């Protein structure tokens, strides 16, 4: 069964990478290098933390049959990453407007 899921997972991962490139990374290309590095570190920390939380909740899943903590953790991680990305994208413009 793992070979059957290989194609859908590859499609989903390609779509996630494309959306990440189109939505977030292209906005940081013209920024200074330290800002780009901070984005790289933030994405790496987010991916690592999401995987760890998902794995830890996955091991707890048999102990909690009524609650689906994996979906809760995934939902919360996407919400937090959305707010962090929107902050980084709009903070520069807000600072410029405030200084003017």
| Spatial gap, N to C terminus | 60 Å
Q: Give the tally of β-strands.
A: 0
In terms of structural class, how would the helical and strand content be classed?
mainly alpha
Total DSSP helices = 3
How many domains is the backbone divided into? 1
Stretches where pLDDT falls below 50 for ≥5 residues? none
- Secondary-structure element pattern, one letter each: HHH
Query: Helix content range of the residues, please?
Result: over 70%
Strand portion: under 5%
Give the averaged pLDDT, no decimals.
80
Largest pleated sheet: none
Q: Determine Rg (CA atoms, Å).
A: 17 Å
Shape: extended
Description:
This protein has one domain. The chain is built from 3 helices and no strands. It has helices at 2-25, 33-60, 69-99. The chain is extended and about 55 Å long. The protein starts with a helix and ends with a helix.
List the helices and strands and how they pair.
Layout: H1 2-25, H2 33-60, H3 69-99
Helix pairs in contact: 2-3
Could you list some keywords that capture this structure?
3 helices, extended
Short description:
The protein has helices spanning 2-25, 33-60, 69-99. With 100 residues, the chain is mostly helical. The radius of gyration is 17 Å and the shape is extended.
